From TrEMBL:
Main subcellular localisation: cytoplasm
Domain of life: Bacteria
Ranges for domain Tetrapyrrole methylase: 11-213
Family recorded in the similarity comment: Belongs to the methyltransferase superfamily. RsmI family.
Span of domain RsmI HTH: 237-281
A Pfam short name: TP_methylase
Functional description taken from the UniProt entry: Catalyzes the 2'-O-methylation of the ribose of cytidine 1402 (C1402) in 16S rRNA.
Gene name linked to the record: rsmI
UniProt key word Transferase: yes
Name listed for the protein in its UniProt record: Ribosomal RNA small subunit methyltransferase I
Subcellular location: Cytoplasm
């Protein structure tokens, strides 16, 4: 039982590697070793991972939980949680609940008053941002877009004004179509296609959206894919508008805070806004 293993009762969302088996954390291994029940989006891949790291399953159940059986399996897991048992859930790869069927399980557990905790670890989103070469100060994760063209284009249109790097997942066979639609709607923004992250054939291809659309228009690549798309270039803001924004901001903020706020909202370099603020303060 959970008390004997030192693991308190509750639902544990366990991040697992996205490629390299050694990317798992010691905390995750402890939970997989000690939980009363182990559940997984893909039981075969989790069983293999546990074997690699010498984590015995023993007599404990390893329960599949995925999009196709969630309605049926969720009550069983919730019943075990209500009985005071510990359940470790792992997605097929990466962090649970990120483009993963575990969301409803976590929501149901919280609604039932069951503790829900996370063992953080590998994530394709953050790994792609690390190696993709696009800004990381702000980003919007949109997961998989709809597979049909009209719905995909509608989703892209809604994301066009995202204030940071756009992060998408895509299936290899649909990558060319996604990039072609993005190039048509977003123009020549910078982008990166990150493939097979942390695996032997990891590849990051950078370029403008039209360049990448041409590159992947033919034979689909293999493996798991993350697409990064740069934010839109800031619109030109006239000096008078920036000055008015500064006056308003300086009424309630320090000079430093006002410069930062206006620079971000107007899309104007901070040093230029700072010089403008100094001139305004000195009556220039």
């Amino acid at each position: 039982m959970a008390e004997e293993s030192g693991i308190e009762p509750g639902l544990y969302l366990v991040a697992v590697p996205i490629g390299a088996a050694r990317d798992i954390t010691l905390h995750a291994l402890d939970l997989l070793r000690g939980a009363d029940i182990v559940a997984a989006e893909d039981t075969r891949s989790l069983r293999r991972l546990m074997e690699i790291h010498g984590v015995p399953l023993g007599e404990r159940p390893l329960i599949p939980y995925h999009d196709h059986n969630g309605e049926r399996v969720r009550p069983r897991l919730l019943a075990a949680l209500r009985e005071g048992r510990s359940v470790a859930y792992a997605s097929e790869a990466g962090t649970p609940l990120i483009a993963d069927p575990g969301f409803q399980l976590g929501a149901a557990a919280r609604a039932a008053g069951v503790p829900v905790r996370a063992a953080p670890g590998a994530s394709a989103v953050l790994t792609a941002l690390c190696v993709g070469g696009l800004p990381t100060d702000r980003f919007t994760f949109a997961g998989f877009l709809p597979p049909k063209r009209a719905a995909r284009r509608a989703a892209l249109s809604e994301l066009a004004a995202a204030p940071g790097t756009l992060v998408l997942y895509e299936a290899p066979r649909r990558l060319g179509a996604l990039l072609a639609d993005a190039a048509e709607l977003f123009g020549d923004r910078r982008a990166a296609v990150c493939r097979e992250l942390t695996k032997r054939f990891e590849e990051v291809v950078e370029g403008t959206l039209p360049e990448l659309a041409d590159r992947f228009a033919g034979e689909p690549p293999r493996g798991e894919i993350v697409v990064l798309i740069d934010r839109a270039a800031p619109a030109e803001t006239d000096q008078g508008t920036v000055e008015n924004m500064l006056r308003d901001a300086l009424e309630t903020m320090s000079l430093k805070s006002a410069v930062k706020d206006v620079s971000q909202r107007a899309g104007v370099a901070r040093n230029l806004v700072y010089e403008m603020a100094l001139r305004m303060r000195d009556g220039g």
